Fold:
Amino acid sequence: MHTRSVSEAAPSRGRFLNTGNGPHLQPLDIGHDSYVALIEPDTAFWSLVRKDALADTLANPSFRAAVVRKQDAFATEMHALRFGLKPSAVYFNPTERCNLNCRYCYIPETMRKHGRHMSQARMFEALERLKRYFKTTMPKGRLPQVVFHGAEPMLNREALFAAIERYGKSFRFGVQTNATLLDDSAIAFLTERGIGIGLSLDAPLPAVANRTRRSWNGEGVFEAVETAMRKLKGYPGFNVICTVTRENLQYLVPMVEFLHAHEAPACMLNIVRCTLPGARTIKPDDAAAAKAFLAALDRTHLLFKRTGRKLVVANFANVLVSILAPTARRLMCDISPCGGGRCFFALAPDGGLYPCSEFIGLKEFRGGNLFKDHIADVLKSPAFTKVTGRKVEAIEPCNQCAIRHFCGAPCPAEAHAMNGGMHRTGAFCEFYEEQVRYAFRLIANGIADDYLWDGWDRDAETTFDWRG
Structure:
């Protein structure tokens, strides 16, 4: 893992001309009183420079020479990150069914109502096939990750728990659940085995949370989730996903206060994916979403200063670390190609393989079947290469954007389904842009670590630290 540090430039007497054979540094106004960011978009190189020294920095031959010396290394690092990784995780859907009818769900309603479960025997067979595949891709000593996802995986609890019991030494397991079926015995089973538990909740008040997440008969599930949170208090392996929509924007600050009070170690404030039409009816405006999101981040920092206990907003932390140390990022939605079909893939209950769960409702992105095809062949299928070949350099206006490798123009499923093509932008742009500006402000103010998981830089090595 390599970090890139702040550079403060001093005035220089020399000047240089940009001949086109070297780094192309783009200034980015980050909304800071004293600093501006200089970014080389192709390599994700950046430097924070005092505003009153910007012209001198751009004219400083020693600064330019220092960047040139590292340019090939930065380019190699980014190329390996974008094109050199192999799958290490699976989003495993053990059922098509769900007992909720959330307004923004990316799985078609007919599947959630009338879909099938994967049998226990099939689940064992699937994990055996995945185990054999990952032996060819995983570094020695590391286990692949399987996240039981959905729909609602706990509807197929008996087979699910049997699979975890049998293959607990072969995979790192996680379960993403709506918590309605997470009773005491289920919590005991999962926590005793150190299984990651992700809950879903969209607001700190039942009246708001239940607007978007409710059962087929219209009943809300806030109480069930809060009960599970109370029972999981103190368990380091649980987190909460909050989907950000027009319905809950004004409640994001109270939401992080609520999560912090329940001692959630981490959460995700995920902007709604607009892959299917239902989600687009509650899509927030970019500017409003950014304002509310950044206010929530501010509040997490205030809470940390008051209590000494962090609530890491994982999706933002990933953007922040993608600037500080690109290869340390944990999520792969904010880079192109994204992680779909490249770092992970999704498995449907009938064995269907998709680049990501977001594509399960889009039949043209079914690349093959786990029980019939070799995974390596599926990864090369047109359904997968449409996603793994999506490059931000081919997307307008992203190919001219200074922060294209800190954002990645997500999400390809959203871009394809909503905007008509894999090489189109997704539903949001300004929202991600404001996150990056905010991240740079934190770095300039020297408080970025307060927003990141402890030990994120334990294996970090600084590769650029120039001070004129």
User: Anything to note?
Assistant: The first strand starts at residue 2 and ends at 4. The chain has a mean pLDDT of 91. The two ends are 25 Å apart (CA to CA). The first helix runs from residue 54 to 58.
